[in-house]
Design brief:
Strand 4 and strand 5 form a beta hairpin. The protein is α+β, with helices and mostly antiparallel strands. The chain has a single domain, classed as Beta Polymerase, domain 2 (2-Layer Sandwich), CATH 3.30.460.10. Strands 1-2-5-4-3 form a 5-stranded mixed sheet. It starts with a helix and ends in an 18-residue tail after the last helix. 34% of the residues lie in helices and 24% in strands. The radius of gyration is 13 Å and the shape is globular. The protein has 4 helices and 5 strands, in the order αββαβββαα.
Length: 122
């Protein structure tokens, strides 16, 4: 599986777990720490932890395990490092506060996910 495909698969896994505001970004031209970032929000800490568990389990079935996993116990901001793909899962309050995508989204690097996220809005 290529890096871009892994990022898109992670985005789809998160969509199935009802993640909100899912974004996948191509950051190859912006940083050397990874090639792609996937950013998503959960409504509460339990959902954020469940999203992280699901990504970890389903990506392991594809042969991918995170090099590092931080924040899963607290469920406020979980970072999953898959080497070329970094996954950031936020509690909505932390997402609003840190607004991570403003650092990494340049207006041209968002991947098309093909997901209808409007049904997740309330």
């Amino acid at each position: 599986m290529q890096e871009k495909d892994a990022a898109l698969k992670i985005a789809h896994i998160l969509y199935e777990k009802k993640a909100r505001d899912i974004r996948a970004l191509d950051v190859r031209q912006l940083t050397v720490i990874c090639d792609y970032m996937v950013i998503a929000s959960g409504r509460n800490s339990n959902q954020v932890r469940a999203m992280a568990d699901e990504v970890e389990d389903l990506m392991a079935q594809e042969g991918f395990t995170p090099r590092r996993l931080e924040g899963a116990n607290e469920g406020r901001w979980v970072v999953m490092d898959y080497g070329t793909v970094l996954v950031h899962l936020f509690h909505e309050e932390e997402r609003d506060y840190y607004h991570l995508e403003r650092l990494w989204e340049d207006g041209t690097n968002r991947l098309e996910l093909g997901l209808d996220q409007t049904d997740l809005e309330e």
